[in-house]
Design a protein that fits this description.
The protein is of the alpha/beta class. It has one domain: 60s Ribosomal Protein L30, Chain: A, CATH 3.30.1330.200. 17% of the residues lie in helices and 32% in strands. Strand 8 and strand 9 form a beta hairpin. The longest helix has 16 residues. The two termini are 27 Å apart. About 5% of the residues have low confidence.
Length: 172
């Protein structure tokens, strides 16, 4: 999916959006789901996915699962001219929304990290876990991200350190 002519593109469960337009902003809301914001800073193209479940391979073709959603996003960026060695990723979500139930959020986060490690794509920022949903806004051309915890009162958690020192993330 590409957001031609739209300033705000909403990425819902099982979807992926890619854009090279400076006026496009991709957005989603995550609970236990995970979203990868991946971009090529040199080319100025990026995209976001939103997946629900960690298990099953890319062969399933079901973008609700980690491997398929990650594969669709990375391959879409490569088709747009991005170079794998320049791709940078920012990962969000994986909250434990209901106490006492299986922690699917943690497994989603692990699935995203493993996929990127195998593909050799750097994770420059991430924010996982906790018990609150997150609202994510991503500007794919420059890789800028805004994140807020959706609970009405909490202060955003500190982000994990970047491996490369790059990858601006603004907490709002």
């Amino acid at each position: 999916m590409t957001g031609a002519g739209s300033a705000t593109i909403h990425v819902v469960q099982g979807e992926c959006a890619i854009s090279d337009r400076p006026d496009n902003m991709l957005t989603t809301v995550l609970g236990s789901c995970v979203s990868a914001c991946i971009y090529d800073p040199q080319l100025g193209v990026g995209g976001m996915n939103h997946f629900l479940l960690p298990d099953t391979g890319a062969d399933s073709g079901d973008n609700r699962y980690a491997a398929a959603a990650m594969e669709v996003l990375v391959n879409g960026l490569l088709r747009r001219g991005a170079a794998r060695n320049r791709l940078e990723a920012k990962l969000f979500g994986g909250a434990r929304m209901l106490a006492g139930l299986y922690d699917i959020g943690q497994r989603n986060a692990l699935a995203a990290r493993r996929f990127l490690e195998v593909e050799g794509i750097a994770v420059v920022k991430s924010d996982f876990g906790g018990t609150h949903a997150r609202r994510i806004r991503f500007w794919p051309v420059g890789g800028r991200v805004q994140m807020i915890l959706v609970d009405g009162t909490s202060v955003p958690r500190p982000e994990l350190p970047a491996r490369s020192g790059r990858g601006e993330m603004e907490l709002f």
